[in-house]
Amino acid sequence: MILLLFLLFSCVWGEKHVCEMSACESLKEGKLFAEEFGYELVENITKTYITKLERRIRSLEQPVWSMSKEDDRWLECSKGPCECTPETKSISCWQRNLPSLPFEQIIPHDAYVIDLGINKLTTINKDAFKHLLFLTELDLFDNELDYLPESIFDDLENLKYLRLHKNFLADLHKNIFWGLRNIKTLDISFNRLTDLPEDIFTVCQDIVMLHLSGNRLKNLPEQLLRNMKYLEDLDISNNEVGNVPLEIFKELSSLRRLNLADNELKELEKEYLMIWLIWNI
Prior knowledge:
InterPro entries: Dev_Immune_Receptor (IPR050328), Leu-rich_rpt (IPR001611), Leu-rich_rpt_typical-subtyp (IPR003591), LRR_dom_sf (IPR032675). This protein is an alpha/beta fold.
């Protein structure tokens, strides 16, 4: 197919609209083009693979802080660089200029809130939040995260609020949110996402607020929002979405706010979408 396309566009047309390149010349040029294109394609695939591998290795090399069940766990927690508040069972590492998780920080197993917002984290070890079964709120916004391991949130079955906005995430594994069965608020806005796996939110059936704005999304899978009957606030603004499958909204019976501004939608499609939403939700 690539070779045929090249032959079609590589002809030098004469006055009588006849291709003046011979068949052999066209074939030779076509082979050179195919080889060059093939090398470039392989090179791009290799670069992508190496980048992903490098990020995965980098996450494995990240330090993991220690979790404690000891009686003095909150006292020990306060000796680290983060601020620990036993009354609210919260840990704030907010705006500490951290390039990685502080390995000397003790994390009580019964922590409710961990705030890692506004730091310089680029990735996190897959075991960073392991066994934190009581955690309900996790802030990772405004960092430099470009990779998150597939299993990083697996143990956070009671997490209700996860904020990942303002990072450098270009893709997310389809299973990354599969441990978040009780999630209510999920903010992954202002990253670099170009697409989302269709089943990435499958277990997030209790979600109330989902923000995807400020990414580079071009398409929305038809089943992306299935079973989200409690979703009230959906923001997909500031993306590159050119077409929205109407079926994507069919189960959103609680939807109160929908923001699709600053996308590639045509005016007629916007009007049709609004009419459909009025009659079906």
